[in-house]
């Protein structure tokens, strides 16, 4: 079983994330998005996600909807849903991502569009 106190982190072109917990039945990340940046438009086959905005404003695409979230707001991303999150504001945006499912590897990301050529 992975250590729930592990502080794995990873730099990305849009910002970075820190893994707060990595357990067999869930994974929790604190994700930081730079102003004007967004994650790839993507979907997952093995996990659903719950996003909770801590600071800043987030624009979330979930299938055909677009939602604006502010600190304290949350959204659920079902397994298989096409989704993305972006930071339209002038400051960094932070949110907590709780993944739940049967597999949490980065290779479960199917990128459909990407600002950084990672398709």
UniProtKB/TrEMBL annotation:
Q: What GO MF terms are annotated?
A: isomerase activity; mannose-1-phosphate guanylyltransferase (GTP) activity
Gene3D superfamilies (alphabetical): Jelly Rolls
Q: Which domain of life is it from?
A: Bacteria
Q: Which GO terms describe its biological process?
A: GDP-mannose biosynthetic process; polysaccharide metabolic process
Instruction: Give start and end of each Mannose-6-phosphate isomerase type II C-terminal domain.
Output: 7-114
Keyword Isomerase in record: yes
Whether Isomerase counts among this entry's keywords is: yes
Record keywords, A-Z: Isomerase
Q: What is this protein called?
A: Mannose-6-phosphate isomerase
> What is the protein's species of origin?
Candidatus Entotheonella gemina
């Amino acid at each position: 079983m992975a250590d729930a106190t592990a502080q794995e982190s990873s730099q990305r072109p849009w910002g970075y994330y820190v893994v707060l917990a990595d357990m067999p039945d869930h994974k929790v990340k604190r994700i930081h998005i730079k102003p004007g940046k967004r994650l790839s438009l993507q979907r997952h086959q093995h996990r659903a996600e719950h996003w909770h905005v801590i600071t800043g404003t987030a624009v979330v695409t979930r299938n055909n909807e677009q939602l604006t979230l502010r600190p304290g707001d949350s959204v659920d991303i079902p397994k298989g849903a096409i989704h993305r999150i972006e930071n339209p504001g002038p400051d960094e945006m932070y949110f907590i991502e709780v993944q739940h499912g049967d597999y949490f590897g980065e290779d479960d990301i199917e990128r459909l569009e990407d600002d950084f050529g990672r398709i």
